[in-house]
Amino acid sequence: MEFKNNEAIYLQIAAYVSDNILLGKWPPEDKVPSVRELAVELQVNPNTVMRTYEYLQNQEVIYNKRGIGFFVTPDGVGKVKKHRRERFLQQDLPEFFRNIFLLDIPLEELQQRYEHFKTENFTTK
Amino acid sequence: MIHINNLSFGYRKKHLLFQNLNLSLFKGHIYGLLGKNGAGKSTLLKNMVGLAYPLEGTCTINGKNASKRSPEVLENLFFLPEEIYVPPLTSAKYVARTACFYPNFNEQEFYSYLAEFEVPRDAVLDKMSFGQQKKMMIAFALATNTELLVMDEPTNGLDIPSKVQFRKIIARALTEDRCVVISTHQVRDLESLIDTLVVVHNREIVVNEELDSIAEKLLFTTLPSAEGHDVLYAEESVRGLNAILPNTEGVYSKVDMELFFNAIINGNPSVVQLLHSNPLQNAF
């Protein structure tokens, strides 16, 4: 896995795990890869993955069954979405607002483009 | 695991490489040892494993003096030097002659590492290319399952796919009971593996700190200009200034090891001072 330069690796791994949960690859109540398995797959220090799992545990995205491993919580998807949403609203949206303000892009145009984007990408055919 | 106490060392008495150096390394970590050419990285590693004797002070492994080279210490450590020597034998014969010194050697693991590195198991070692020899020795080093594994520039000579395999194998091999020390100039090869940085500079250990704790105190970022920022150290790049700032907002950035290293060796005291600002972090 290629890591970006602007964010701690353990957070980037947390985003990767969250993506897999959102995509349904790792469904609720399923076991997620062990710390070592994920460390080998991503070629990172197992301690880093441990930190990721502790972080996701605090966010109630995964939980620890002692001696067995880590599992996705029943509401894992909801939790991921909630945290993602907060992060988007706080970090990405201000940047986006700044750009549309500087470039004089009216909200109507955005609305139009957004509808177009939805039909292009997210309609089930 | 390893405790170095007031170590002084020099190949000549008048020219000390280290003076009153102290360092403690623990199990369950992968330490990355950084230092300029000639700073004494390899010499420090040799002191750790009993290949060089301190002029003053001690270096102990699990409480035993490394320079005594007692069998119980040696069977529990493996040192992989930068330049390796391999005898004109096949891997199997090498194992038959050498593995007996390491009670926890696991032959099955050895062959699975060899397979992963795509090193032919029946080739004669000294007829193989340097990279193949190195991979064979890395496979052997890991299969000895010693508590202490010290590697001097292990990724030198490895091709691109082998570096990926190397990272995977190391990630698998690190357990709670193992201490891995790797000296390197190729920080990009290993930056996602190393969890603690040790920097040797001017005869001392200037940094011995977990990356997480470095990221807690320092912010690595790219700025359009230094204006209005409390820049501790910066380098020009195409995208702007690659800068180190104090981390005041609790944002976790990825530690840019090259930038960090340059900040230290260019004699930037504020970076190091800020790192040592929390007395609790230095308690050990």
TrEMBL record, chain A:
Keywords: DNA-binding, Transcription, Transcription regulation. Residues 7-75 form the HTH gntR-type domain. It comes from the Bacteria. PROSITE patterns: HTH_GNTR. InterPro entries: Tscrpt_reg_HTH_GntR, WH-like_DNA-bd_sf, WH_DNA-bd_sf. This is GntR family transcriptional regulator. It comes from Rufibacter roseus.
From TrEMBL, chain B:
The keyword Magnesium does not apply. Residues 2-227 form the ABC transporter domain. Pfam families: ABC_tran (PF00005). GO terms for molecular function: ATP binding. Keywords: ATP-binding, Nucleotide-binding, Transport. The keyword Membrane does not apply. SUPFAM superfamilies: P-loop containing nucleoside triphosphate hydrolases (SSF52540). This is ATP-binding cassette domain-containing protein. It comes from Rufibacter roseus.
